Amino acid sequence: MSLGLTKTKTNGVPAASNGSSIIHMDAIRKVYDTGKVKVEALKGIDLAIGNGEFVAIVGPSGSGKSTLMNLIGCLDTPTDGRYELAGEHVSDLTRDQLADIRNRRVGFIFQNFNLLPHISASENVEMPMLFGGLPVRERRERARTLLEAVGLGDRTEHKPTELSGGQMQRVAIARALAMEPAILLADEPTGNLDSSSGGDIMTLFNDLWNQGRTLVIITHDQALATRASRIVEIHDGRITRDERQ
Ligand SMILES: Nc1ncnc2c1ncn2[C@@H]1O[C@H](COP(=O)(O)OP(=O)(O)OP(=O)(O)O)[C@@H](O)[C@H]1O
Ligand SMILES: [Mg+2]
Questions:
Q1: Measuring from each residue's beta carbon to the nearest atom of ligand 1, which residues come in under 6 Å?
Q2: Percentage above 90 pLDDT, the chain
Q3: What is the pTM (predicted TM-score) of this model?
């Protein structure tokens, strides 16, 4: 199965060791202020992730994993600290610039797939390319290639409701790859899947990593975490373990 449209892995060494980090966070804090209570969800995160790493983020419920992922993916901004994504200072950007960097740099995969229910698998995959301004023919062709690469070449015209959970997640992965993002972010990607479809998704992530992609995956799934090249553990808004394996 070939999922790398243009990228190839040049070596098996985590790129953090050659100095080219794609994510660079310094003393990141995130405080949610809902009026009555303030929640300090992240209490000073220092994290550098290199090109080509496969990082699993683990930790108990409420420890700040999704908050961290939202910051990494520019869905939200930190209260304090500095964040560089692919060499750009995210903290200084406007909302429009953030939306643009998100569409170009980040591919998201969620536990509940987040597909649009009334349009086909192909149209779902085309969506980021539509926002990215790609011409219609290129969008169609790329969507087909990506869906074939995730094993759904015969389901391109199916709507999400006509697909299984595992197939929906594969559509979501194809969509996440559409803009050739620098990084793929997944929040509990196997959380809603049975163990067999979860296993297929894990294999897909492994293939993507072997092709040189950078993956950051939040998971409670020990089997998925052990496939990663690095495990970062969070407790109560702080990194308590960071190990390459
Ligand atoms: N939008 C929000 N407004 C206020 N508080 C929030 C918000 N989002 C998260 N929190 C709080 O921030 C803390 C971290 O939440 P977060 O969702 O990052 O945890 P998590 O590690 O992803 O948990 P889980 O494993 O259950 O998904 C929690 O105490 C949560 O209640
Ligand atoms: Mg979460």
A1: 32, 34, 39, 41, 59, 61-67
A2: 80
A3: 0.90
